[in-house]
Amino acid sequence: MTFKAFLIKYAEIGVKGRNRYIFEDALVQQMKYALKRCDGEFSIRKEQGRIYVDVVSDYYDYDEVVENLSRVFGISHICPMIQLEDEGFEKLGKDIVKYMDEAYPDKKITFKVNARRARKNYPLTSMEINQALGGMILDAFPEISVDVHNPDVLLSVEIREHIYVYSIVVPGPGGMPIGTAGKAMLLLSGGIDSPVAGYMIAKRGVKIDAVYFHAPPYTSERAKQKVVDLAKEVAKYAGPIYLHVINFTDIQMYIYEKCPHDELTIIMRRYMMKIAEMIAKETECIGLITGESIGQVASQTMHSLAVTNEVCTLPVYRPLIGFDKKDIIEISEKIGTYETSILPFEDCCTIFVAKHPVTKPSLAIIKKHETHLEEKIDELVQTALDTDEVIIVR
Ligand code: ATP
Ligand code: MG
After folding, report:
1. Residue 292 CB less than 6 A away from ligand 1
2. Which of 185, 193, 214 to mutate to test the pocket of ligand 1 (most atoms within 8 A of CB)?
3. pLDDT value of residue 300
4. Pocket lining: 263 vs ligand 1, CB cutoff 6 Å
5. Considering only CA atoms, which of 349, 382, 186, 194 is closest in space to residue 267?
6. Phi, psi of 167 (to 5 degrees)
7. What is the 190 CA–ligand 1 centroid distance (Å)?
8. Which H/E stretch holds residue 239?
9. Pairing between β-strand 207-214 and β-strand 183-187 as defined by DSSP bridges
10. Residue 176 carries which DSSP code?
11. Can you tell me which atom of ligand 1 is nearest the CA of 248?
């Protein structure tokens, strides 16, 4: 059975009132972006609170289209459908029987017809349509039976300007379309957590930029490529990502040289946040995102997070804060970042880690030790910003 159109359902949340068109326009925009990845030609139309995708070309790959649309935030369901013209009820019945025959070669199924009449001048009521079409299907296929409570197949028939018929419903990711909230800067490392954090915030409609702190030659080109690859995976959901690659080596070395080694990670983390915020402010981001989770490592205890957070004036979104590692892994597997995340390339934090990093840093002491950096740190930060390499990841 080949479908030439899809009905796209979206969650009701956030689409009421005057903001509705903003939501719909953003959704259409993101759907266009997703369909651009697919072979074939498509057009999208909005009609009475519904969005439809029409297949314009002769050829397209059904699985590819469904897969790509199921990554568009804001979509609750994707329904491949057939579109019929109103040529009388007899003809409708015939077409519906044909649809059931093609869509369900095995007829040992139960079904229920669910008609909706958006066009009230249609000669039959919804109830009458249900009964009449149900009868025609029963007559055509002796093995099939009706189950009004828990049918295998819920056959939807929507009488609008055209008549839409569908019964296959593929779940979408939910959430809000990208572009309906502001933009935020994701601190993206090569690990498991930060891509998941980016996904979760993007799912609420937030556009994402990213920054990666690279420390060559201590971190390799392959480690950087891994981050680009992760950004690519996140971009499948979040749209194009501007990835800022910041050379962090000199800053890291300088901290290593001047500060106590058990405080290295925490001071480094403070400088990462500071620099990320500087780029964020220059690029109209109104928040930062990290993959931190309380207690996961020494730099993510409540005390450490408080000290790290202190350098930021923008809100820092930490969607994984209460998640266990296994729950984060589960999401990363579901969204397709896990395989890349576990590739064994060193990240810049692991090279210089102390054997016994502080777990309860004191802000006053950390600040005191940071004064050892006064001579050169501003210049090093400026150089890092000046040599920012921006990669547009699609
Ligand atoms: P992840 O799995 O995301 O790498 P992690 O468990 O390794 O996290 P940390 O290394 O403590 O944890 O990093 C905490 C957060 O800081 C990360 O989730 C990420 O948002 C950010 N971060 C860490 N290292 C980098 C880096 N090299 N570049 C950009 N952001 C980083
Ligand atoms: Mg990491």
Report:
1. yes
2. 193
3. 94
4. no
5. 349
6. -145, -10
7. 7
8. none
9. parallel
10. B
11. 27
Dist. CA 292 → ligand 2 center (Å): 9
Distance 191 CA to ligand 2 centre (A): 5
Distance CA 105, CA 389 (A): 55
**Residues 6 or more apart whose Cβ sits within 8 Å of residue 31:** 8, 44, 51, 53, 69, 72, 75
User: Is the minimum distance from the CB of 349 to ligand 1 under 6 angstroms?
Assistant: yes
Which residue do the tokens 């197949």 mark? 153
Q: Please, are residues 271 and 299 in contact by the beta-carbon 8 Å criterion?
A: no
Per-residue pLDDT reduced to its tens digit, 164-173: 999 999 999 9
Examine the pLDDT at 263 and tell me if it is beyond 80.
yes
3-state helix, strand, coil in the chain (%, to 5): 45, 20, 35
Q: So what's the pLDDT on residue 32?
A: 95
Please compute the mean of the pLDDT values over residues 285-309 and round it to a whole number: 96
Residue corresponding to tokens 């490529």 = 225
Nearest ligand atom owner, CA of 317: 1
User: Which position has the token pair 């928040």?
Assistant: 287
What span, in angstroms and rounded, lies between the C-alpha atoms of 189 and 300?
15
Residue 284 backbone class (left: φ over 0; alpha: ψ -120 to 50; beta: rest): left
Q: What is the pLDDT of residue 275?
A: 98
- 299 CA to middle of ligand 1, Å? 10
Q: Which residue has a Cα nearest atom 7 of ligand 1? A: 191
Give the distance (Å) from ligand 2 centre to CA of residue 73.
Answer: 26
Q: How far is the CA of 189 from the centre of ligand 2 (A)?
A: 5
Q: Please give the number of the atom of ligand 1 that sits closest to the Cα of 219.
A: 27
Residue 353 has pLDDT above 80, yes or no: no
Taking the CA of 290 as reference, the closest ligand is 1
Stretch 210-217: mean pLDDT, rounded? Answer: 96
CB 262 within 8 A of CB 247: no
Beta carbon of 289 within 6 Å of any ligand 1 atom? no
Hey, what are 49's tokens?
Answer: 């609170």
Give the integer Cα–Cα distance in Å for 164 and 156: 8
List the beta strands (DSSP E) in 167-287: 170-171, 183-187, 207-214, 241-247
